[in-house]
Amino acid sequence: MSLAHGEAQSRQLLFALVLTPVDLCQKFIGWLLDMPCHEDIVLLVSPATYDAVNWPARWTVKVVDGREPLRQALAGGAQAAAVISGSLADHRIVVRQFAFQPQHPMLLALHWPGAPVARSLVNHWRFNKATDVNLFVDLDAKAFSGQPGYLGVKNPVVLTRPEAEGISVSQCLRYTLDALLGYPQRALDHRVVRDYSDLKLSYITHFYCNQNDISSVTRLLERYAAYPEDVRARCSL
Questions:
Q1: Domains contained in the chain, number
Q2: 172 and 201 share one domain
Q3: Is the pLDDT at 195 greater than 90, yes or no?
């Protein structure tokens, strides 16, 4: 099983991009360059991708040529917080390497338009059981999910959505990693809070959207709004 939220001690993100086409690697790496990052970035790339990119000095880039060398390179990645595969071909090898270990990094698969996942028992296990999150580049990449002949992919995150105006792919990827790896940041009472241990009071109430009277909720919100700011910062609804 993957490490539970908050258990990941490593700050390393490992990217398997060896079997990903060079043009898609260049696009994905551009998003990574724009993403605020507080982890150690390690990338496994093909010789062609290595030659095509101007790599920043702060990243660790390893050239890996082929499937078997990729398996060997992944053997050293067991302590990573997450392994992100750049293509379905890369992800097949990543899952084979890590899924049978008692504990392993979070496994994320990147899905591009034009590369739907065929429906099969093996793919159901690979993408719906062994994979923590399926990252779809956009809605076109997700369009075939669940259609006849194609796998209904679970745990999806779409990185580009029309309604998410102003939120870039890099920002969406950052939000996803923060939520997965257990270090959220909540700005409350002029403080940045990285976990929920500060909360001392919680309200729980039943609410049904089809009821005629929502006064139980509005009264709760009014009472909450009347608390001093320092108290509200330590409550959850």
A1: 2
A2: no
A3: no
Sign of CA dihedral 182, 186, 191, 197: negative
Give me the count of residues in the chain: 237
Kindly report the number of other CB atoms within 10 A of residue 138's CB atom.
Answer: 16
Q: pLDDT tens, 156-171?
A: 999 987 766 778 888 8
CATH of the domain at 173: 3.40.50.2000
Residues 154 and 227 both lie in one domain: no
CA 208 to chain centre: 31
Co-location of 210 and 163 in the same domain? no
The per-residue pLDDT of the chain, averaged, comes to: 84
pLDDT of residue 4: 41
Distance CA 168, CA 153 (A): 23
Over residues 185-208, the mean pLDDT reads 60
Residue 180 and residue 191 in one domain: no
CB 18 within 8 A of CB 90: yes
Please report, for residues 71, 108, 136, 189, 198, the alpha-carbon distance to residue 95 in angstroms, rounded to integers and kept in the order given. Answer: 10, 10, 18, 42, 37
Residue 17, domain member (yes or no)? yes
Kind and range of the H or E run holding 30: helix 22-34
Does 125 or 224 have the greater pLDDT score? Answer: 125
Q: Does 232 reside within a domain?
A: yes
Residue 149 φ/ψ region, left for φ over 0, alpha for ψ in the -120 to 50 degree band, beta for the rest: left
- Percentage helix, strand, coil, to 5, in the chain? 35, 20, 45
